[in-house]
Amino acid sequence: MKAGIKIVLSVALLSSLSFGGEQFAMSDSDRAMYAEMLENNPADLMVANGEELLAEKCGGDAGLAAFLNVSEDELPVYLAGFPRYLPEFKQVVAIDQVLQGLMYKNGHKPFKLKSSDMFDMSAYAKSLANGEKSQIDIDANPQMKEAYVLGEKTFNQKRGGRGLSCMSCHSPDIIGSVLRTQPLPDLSNKGVAVAATWPAYRMTKSSLRTLQRRFQGCMKNALLKVIPIGSPEMVALEVYLTKRAEGTEIAIPGLKR
Amino acid sequence: MKKTFMMSLLVSASLFAADYSGVIEKPNASKMIEKDLLAPAKTFTMPAGCITTDADAIARGSFIFHNLNGKKAKGKLPKGLAKKQMKAGKTYLPGDKIPAKQYGNCVACHNIEGARGAGNIGPDLTGYKAMFMATGVRDNQFVFQKIADPRIDNKDTHMTVNLTTKLFTPREICDITSYIVSEK
Fold it and tell me: Where in chain A are the domains?
């Protein structure tokens, strides 16, 4: 099952990266390395570390399911629908924040949202939904509606030293254009899998990163003030892009340039 | 209505009214964003003597065009351009951290003579003088305004805003404009 997903992913990604020529950031040797990593994603190790951490700090899959009030059978589908509004958190939360709550409940000091242990553990938790369809109910309650609206607003907000918004580079009309050797990925069209493929291994950073951490990378590069992981705007951006990924298969860890 | 009320009662009952809202990280970003927002579009007029054939000015314009910032930039720095961004009126002591100066990184979106790894989000600016200036399609003021604040003639532009954001000084916008309209 898992192998099947990876193959679909690899074909899509490789074809989007298989332009020749020095104009692009991926050289032939980069591409060869990429193909190799698809067979053997280095992040598998980090996800395995996440599995151990979840067992140790959160009572494993069963502990997570109990905390979320679902059976272990229902857990994958339920996890495929995050971020969610949870009344006991009084807000829309991403999976990493849920894990902070659960660590606290079990008497552990919660990992920082930006720590690599948290990246590993939330990657493992989301990977439990591998093979499920990404789904998010933005009409579930007023809080989800609000988060979606905030996410869209944050995506479109021009700011920073260069007056750019996420939309400046991720608008549907410039998908596939080249920004200094990098083809611009499609984040916005229906059925785009981006949010379903994070957390992912970033080859250029040699580490596992979450979706919100990826947002920070774009903010830093484009001179937008980098906002903290877990802020309502960050969770809202995740809601917004997860809505874009609706119906695509979750495949964690992804593999990115 | 009644149903959702019942549901939420059930949910909270099963959790023994647990409250985790105080134990998770939920930093506030709205103030950071508010301070960072882009000001409305602004019209600028070229200062006197803006466009020049001075080789140093054009070299500065070219350097700003082709580089991202002072940390990443390679090659010889043209006269009158810094790699670090000192704040006016601030005194610096030895060992103080001075941030890298930001450049235009125009090449990320535009091709032009001698560009390496140029992007294609914006139009190709190669041969700009012959194609756009000599033919009268564009003039210096248009190019200056485009770089200073491109929203004036295109409110939906994907281009960067360079003067309204105070990323550059009017003099630097003049240097960049002089480079674009120059014979290359």
Answer: 1-257
**SS3 sequence of chain A:** CHHHHHHHHHHHHHHHHCCCCCCCCCCHHHHHHHHHHHHCCCHHHHHHHHHHHHHHHHCHHHHHHHHCCCCCCCHHHHHCCCCEEEHHHCEEECHHHHHHHHHHHCCCCCCCCCCHHHHHHHHHHHHCCCCCECCCCCCCCHHHHHHHHHHHHHHHCCECCCCECHHHHHCHHHCCCEECCEECCCCCCCCCCHHHHCCEEECCCCEEECHHHHHHHHHHHCCCCCCCCCCHHHHHHHHHHHHHCCCCECCCCEEEC
Name the residue in chain A with its Cα closest to that of B108.
Answer: A180
B18 CA to chain A: closest CA distance, Å? 6
pTM score of the predicted model: 0.88
CATH architecture of A1-257: Orthogonal Bundle (1.10)
Note the ipTM here: 0.88
Quick: pLDDT tens for B90-109.
888 888 888 899 999 999 99
State pLDDT tens for residues A162-186: 999 999 999 888 888 888 888 888 8
User: Count of CB contacts below 8 A, A vs B?
Assistant: 132
Closest chain A residue to the Cα of B27, Cα to Cα: A231
pLDDT(A3) > 80:
no
For A105, nearest residue in chain B (alpha carbons) = B20
Nearest by CB to A224, from B26, B36, B102: name it: B36
Q: Domain B52-87+96-184 belongs to what topology? A: Cytochrome Bc1 Complex; Chain D, domain 2 (1.10.760)
